[in-house]
């Protein structure tokens, strides 16, 4: 991130907007079968990456007293057997609220968007896992939305 930010500042001179849109669903299955490595990877990709990227651009935005950070979470519909993903995205929502309060005096706007289900590779993987992994109700809803 430091190298990327350095290059952005060399080319453009500033950072106006940051969109934290990283996402991975992680392991599908009951929490008792989730490994620590799977848990940590879901948190790293879905939450820690937003922290690291935001932290990197904040000095530039704070100095000029403006900027926008947009975090992409999820609809937050409870989804069985996707606990690491759902917990990380819930953390991203709270991270957004915290940053918004902390950065208000610098006129940096921090928002979170919650897109609905989109037919991505992630959704395909969830559908392919079938009803045993995500429950019949969720499976039928995902299938009908695509």
Commentary on this structure:
The protein has 146 residues and is mostly helical. It has a single domain (2-116), classed as NAD(P)-binding Rossmann-like Domain (Rossmann fold, 3-Layer(aba) Sandwich). It has helices at residues 2-12, 36-64, 83-102, 121-129, 131-134, 136-145; strands at residues 17-20, 67-72, 108-113. The protein has a three-stranded parallel sheet with strand order 1-2-3, covered by helices on one side. Strand 1, helix 2 (36-64) and strand 2 (67-72) form a beta-alpha-beta unit. Helix 2 (36-64) packs parallel to helix 3 (83-102).
Q: Quaternary status of these chains?
A: single chain
In CATH terms, the superfamily is: NAD(P)-binding Rossmann-like Domain
Which structural class matches the secondary elements? Answer: mainly alpha
> Taking all residues together, what is the mean pLDDT?
87
Count the E strands.
Answer: 3
Helix and strand pattern: HEHEHEHHH
Number of domains: 1
Q: In the CATH hierarchy, what is the architecture at level 2? A: 3-Layer(aba) Sandwich
Gyration radius, to the nearest Å? 17 Å
Count of separate DSSP helical elements: 6
Helix content: 55-70%
CATH topology: Rossmann fold
Give a summary of the structure in a few sentences.
It is built from 6 helices and 3 strands; from the N terminus they run αβαβαβααα. By secondary structure, the chain is mostly helical. It has a single domain, classed as 3-Layer(aba) Sandwich (Rossmann fold), CATH 3.40.50.720.
List keywords for this structure.
57% helix; 146 residues; Rossmann fold; mainly alpha; three-stranded parallel sheet; 6 helices
């Amino acid at each position: 991130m430091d190298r990327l930010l350095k290059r952005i500042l060399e080319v453009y001179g500033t950072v106006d907007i940051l969109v934290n849109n990283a996402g991975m669903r992680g392991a599908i299955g009951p929490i008792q079968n989730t490994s620590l490595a799977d848990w940590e990877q879901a948190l790293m990709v879905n939450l820690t990456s937003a922290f690291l990227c935001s932290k990197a651009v904040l000095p530039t935005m704070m100095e000029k007293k403006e900027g926008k950070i947009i975090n992409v979470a999820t609809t937050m519909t409870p989804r069985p057997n996707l606990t690491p993903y759902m917990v990380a995205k819930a953390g991203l929502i709270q991270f957004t609220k915290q940053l918004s309060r902390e950065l208000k005096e610098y006129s940096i706007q921090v928002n979170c968007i919650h897109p609905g289900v989109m037919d991505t590779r992630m959704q395909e993987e969830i559908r392919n896992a079938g009803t045993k992994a995500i429950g019949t109700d969720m499976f039928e809803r995902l299938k009908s939305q695509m």
